[in-house]
């Protein structure tokens, strides 16, 4: 199986050309070496191309099949196809000049007739990745195991009523975690694809949550055993594929991690589309994760406000991204996390170079938003008004209340004193919204 390296029309890596670049394929905002607040843009944004949407998805939808007709999807020698797919993947990484990629076990290597065979396939492709990574600059942001596509997982993996399925999933995760470790992965992700339920008529929620807690604890134990330093990341999503997913949103995941004593080792991978499916904004989920100390990484994409499913479109909305990045930058930026393009081109985007345009366009949207966020932060445009709004809590009385030095009676007595008449102040929302618009 030979896929021509000339699959893409472009052959030179996309370069930064400035805002007025003439070429349709140029970065207009993403100048990777530009230093912002002490770090290069490339090191701030930490872009990753994901394997599954870009190289595995054939363009189908519930009403029709494949539209992309990728050459590496045609043939019977599955390992040869996997190698051809890897060639194309690394060619795209080179053309985009991205620092990271991400994958599920089954994205990169075919499932065998047994778990042993699947693990051997995965390790053979990991050997190939090791070679390819040695001669390119791309690194692994995270790896994960697909515990949701195969029919064995139709009733869940960790939350399956059958402990043998739990065991099979454990086997898959051990292999994926070890391969992630071997390839220098910076995080390991667990997205609970089918960890949820369709009907309570056949579901014992308490038992399933205990199973999930046990499973994640096993992964954490193994991570320590093999010396994997990165965090385990759980990815919240409220629904799809199951009607109700246990990792509903950031708040729910936090409660889960606290209950099963996992807060020390597990952080969250937050996705825009999942946030809006949960009825939240992207910024809300990020801000809450930061407030709770569980922020890890981002799956960068965008959902459609009019559709109730995970459309996984490429993120292009600069104002929305700017507010998200503002909060990330305010807290010091990414550590092991980054921006993973969990995004797929539309079904009609059948030209090979559509893959390049999608990533370049979204990288530019992110860079433009990031620069706006840095400017807002430098000018304290949003941080100052917030600090002023809560200034009372920095005063002696405010601090004493929070430090537990005032009883309810103390406060009541103070409130009853003659002349005590606090006045409300404006929340200034429209002023602040207009302020943001000056930057984006
Ligand atoms: C699906 C999830 C998935 C995870 C990785 O909705 O976003 O793509 O990111 O399993
Ligand atoms: Ni995702
Ligand atoms: Ni998703």
Key traits:
two-stranded antiparallel sheet, binds nickel (II) ion, single chain, alpha/beta, binds D-xylose, TIM Barrel, 16 helices
General description of the model:
This protein has 440 residues and is an alpha/beta fold. It is 45% helix and 10% strand. The chain has 16 helices and twelve strands. The chain has helices spanning 41-45, 51-56, 78-96, 105-108, 115-134, 163-182, 205-226, 250-259, 272-277, 282-292, 318-330, 352-378, 383-389, 396-402, 408-416, 429-439, and strands spanning 35-36, 39-40, 47-50, 100-104, 139-144, 187-190, 196-197, 232-234, 244-245, 266-271, 295-299, 339-341. The strands form three sheets. An eight-stranded parallel β-barrel has the order 3-4-5-6-8-10-11-12, surrounded by four helices. Strands 1-2 form a two-stranded antiparallel sheet. The two termini are 47 Å apart. One nickel (II) ion (NI) binds next to loops. Its cofactor is Mg(2+). InterPro entries: Xyl_isomerase-like_sf (IPR036237), Xylose_isom_bac (IPR013452), Xylose_isomerase (IPR001998).
Topology overview:
Elements: E1 35-36, E2 39-40, H1 41-45, E3 47-50, H2 51-56, H3 78-96, E4 100-104, H4 105-108, H5 115-134, E5 139-144, H6 163-182, E6 187-190, E7 196-197, H7 205-226, E8 232-234, E9 244-245, H8 250-259, E10 266-271, H9 272-277, H10 282-292, E11 295-299, H11 318-330, E12 339-341, H12 352-378, H13 383-389, H14 396-402, H15 408-416, H16 429-439
Parallel strand pairs: 3-4, 3-12, 4-5, 5-6, 6-8, 8-10, 10-11, 11-12
Antiparallel strand pairs: 1-2, 7-9
Helix pairs in contact: 3-5, 5-6, 6-7, 10-11, 11-12
The structure holds D-xylose and nickel (II) ion (2 copies).
Residues 191, 235, 271, 299, 342 line the site of one nickel (II) ion.
């Amino acid at each position: 199986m030979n896929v021509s390296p000339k699959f893409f029309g472009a052959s030179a890596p996309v370069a930064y050309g400035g805002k007025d670049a003439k070429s349709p394929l140029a970065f207009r905002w993403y100048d990777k070496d530009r230093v912002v607040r002490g770090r290069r843009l490339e090191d701030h944004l930490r872009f990753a191309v994901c394997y599954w949407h870009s190289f595995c998805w054939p363009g189908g939808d519930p009403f029709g099949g494949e539209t992309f007709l990728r050459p590496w999807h045609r043939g019977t020698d599955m390992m040869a196809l996997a190698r051809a797919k890897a060639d194309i993947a690394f060619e795209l990484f080179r053309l985009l000049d991205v620092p990271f990629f991400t994958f599920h076990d089954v994205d990169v290597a075919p499932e065998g007739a047994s778990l042993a065979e699947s693990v051997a396939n995965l390790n053979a492709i990991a050997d190939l990745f090791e070679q390819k990574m040695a001669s390119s600059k791309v690194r692994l942001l995270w790896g994960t195991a697909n515990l949701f596509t195969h029919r064995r997982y139709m009733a869940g993996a960790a939350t399956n009523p059958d402990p043998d399925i739990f065991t099979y999933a454990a086997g898959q995760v051990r292999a994926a975690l070890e391969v992630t470790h071997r390839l220098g992965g910076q995080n390991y992700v667990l997205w609970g694809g089918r960890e949820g339920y369709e009907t309570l008529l056949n579901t014992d929620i308490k038992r399933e949550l205990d199973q999930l807690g046990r499973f994640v604890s096993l992964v954490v134990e193994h991570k320590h055993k093999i010396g994997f330093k990165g965090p385990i990341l759980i990815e919240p999503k409220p629904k799809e594929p199951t009607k109700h997913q246990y990792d509903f949103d950031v708040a729910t995941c936090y409660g889960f991690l606290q209950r099963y004593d996992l807060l020390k080792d597990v952080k969250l991978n937050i996705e825009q589309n999942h946030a809006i499916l949960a009825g939240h904004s992207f910024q809300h989920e990020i801000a809450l994760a930061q407030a709770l100390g569980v922020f890890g990484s981002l799956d960068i994409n965008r959902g459609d406000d009019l559709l109730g499913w995970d459309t996984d479109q490429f993120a292009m909305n600069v104002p929305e991204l700017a507010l998200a990045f503002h909060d990330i930058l305010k807290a010091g930026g990414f550590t092991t996390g980054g921006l993973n393009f969990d995004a797929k081109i539309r079904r009609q985007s059948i030209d090979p170079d559509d893959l390049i345009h999608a990533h370049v366009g979204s990288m530019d949207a992110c860079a433009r938003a990031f620069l706006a966020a840095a400017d807002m932060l430098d000018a304290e445009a949003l941080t100052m008004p917030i600090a002023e709004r809560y200034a009372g809590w920095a005063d002696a009385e405010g601090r004493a209340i929070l430090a537990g030095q005032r009883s309810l009676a103390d406060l009541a007595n103070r409130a009853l004193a003659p002349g005590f008449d606090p006045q409300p102040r404006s929340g200034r929302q429209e002023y602040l919204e207009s302020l943001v618009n000056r930057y984006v």
